[in-house]
Amino acid sequence: MTAERRGEHRVSGPFEATWSGMSGHRSVRITDFSLRGLFVEDIAAPATASA
Fold first, then answer.
1. Which of 28, 26, 4, 8 is nearest to 16 (CA)?
2. Phi-psi region of 39 (alpha: psi -120 to 50; beta: other; left: phi over 0)
């Protein structure tokens, strides 16, 4: 296993959040964050193509 290289203290989630942008609103999950960044997982269902 490799050693942790991040210097900032990280806060573990998960935390539910909403991402708003030009394409609309999306539900996301933040799994951890620090003063310098965060990791976001998109938990929205994928769009299905119509035939």
1. 28
2. beta
Closest by CA to 35, choosing from 13, 8, 4, 2, is 8
Please name the residue that has the structure tokens 């933040």: 30
Q: How is residue 19 written in tokens?
A: 């991402």
| Spatial distance between the Cα atoms of 43 and 38, rounded to a whole number of angstroms | 16
2-20, pLDDT tens digit by residue? 666 777 888 998 999 988 8
* pTM, entire model: 0.58
Q: Which of 29, 1, 28, 36 is nearest to 14 (CA)?
A: 29
